[in-house]
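Quick board copy: two proteins, each given as sequence then tokens.
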Amino acid sequence: MSISTPLSFDDGPGPSTHALLDVLRASSCQALFFVLGSNLARAMDVAARAVREGHVLGNHTYTHARPGVLSDAALTDEIEQTDALIREAYRLAAVPEPASIPLRLPYGLEPEDVRADVLARLKRSHTGWTAILDDWQRPAPSPHALVDAMRWHIAESRARGQDVLFCMHDGSRLAEARPATVEAVRLLLSDPDWRAGQLANGRGAGQ
């Protein structure tokens, strides 16, 4: 049985993406990968592998510019350029292209964000998160600190009857490795209590 997970990863593909895909495959779990076009252009094979193994590719723009840095036209170009690369990854994987591509802006979409008008014109929704982990920091927290934070958030969200979607990172603009992220995900997915909770919540294949 394939178990969907509340996991999403930004800024890849990166040096740790293959290892992360190995961990996810070992647990028959799928995730969302919000890729940077600049990284994707250099690692189409990694993205194609993710698609073949049932993961979903999302758009995280091309360069990870901060809010307000790009003009509306430049941001539109970045989104469209990254969309085209994502579609090419699906073609390379021999997997049908999705009807729509999820999108997550760098740094998230804040109230009164200057980029919101671009999304409105493109008729694109924004995918946020319920918790963002500090795995992007230098140095990153330990795997055990990361997985403890994940378990706490899952428990708190379940107690409130709320869904969970983590934002973690499998790369960066500088192509940094994320070994702590890979190990934290392995620890979470190997936890029998977590897997039992996923099954109890009906998070099976196709859900």
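And the next:
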Amino acid sequence: MAEDSRTPVTVVGLGSMGGALAEAFLAAGHPTTVWNRSPHRAARLVALGADHRTEIGEAVAASPLTVACLSAYDVTRRSLEAAGDALAGRTLITLNSGVPAEAREMAAWAAGRGARFLDGAVKNVPSAVGGPDTLLYYSGDRAVFDAYEPALRALGGDTVHLGPEADLAALYESAVGALLLPALLGFFEGAAMVTARGLEAGSMVRFSVKWLEMIGSILPVLAREIDTGEYGDAASSVGLFHDALASEELLGEEAGVDLSWHAPMNDLLRRAVAEGHREHSVSALVEMVRKPPRSV
């Protein structure tokens, strides 16, 4: 497929992310057909040049490539069931939430309808779609990815093929996504502390970003320790974190914040110390995550 080709694309699902995907395809010059269960969501995109179809079968049939951005795999399947045999001979890419097993089921479902399939994930917010640094990754048949990579780059400049297994995007989406809520809860906890003192949460943003950048800088070291299983060279040990638990309790009382969400993390630290990891790098906590706690 030539780099300057403009592949016709159908976008199924026009929520915040789906609408951003359709807009990015339109901005890049791709003939774009859109469908949504609630038709009014298409109005803004039609004004930008999209072709709106109210029947999903017609929308799928309008393009060789359909990008589905619905909430979950089962919702995607239920919506596309109404397309009948329109998927046969076409390519379906799903960008929705779910787990690897669901991605494998989706791949089998698509194959049963004669469609080629990729699964994917957008690793950014809707407003970043189309940006040169925005990351999207995909998994499935490499030949399918290669055929549509020029079109997919309209969605983000950092476009990655993870491998031929259809569930790899869902695996990495789950693995990388595990960072989000704990990081946000940490920020919310800090915000509760500073606002309790009459300070603005915004006052800690610059410092929080610097801290996250520091964490990012040490991830390659921690990943190497996990990959090799060598935890002996501890820049930050399990014991260092474990010994801070008493101060954490005092902090919660003084600041008047609920730290109960720390309990599972603290339990991991205690188990790690009990199993001989006190002097090991904090990366050794992965060994606790890999196995359930012993029954009492």
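Board note added afterward: Residues 38 and 214 are 44 Å apart (CA to CA).
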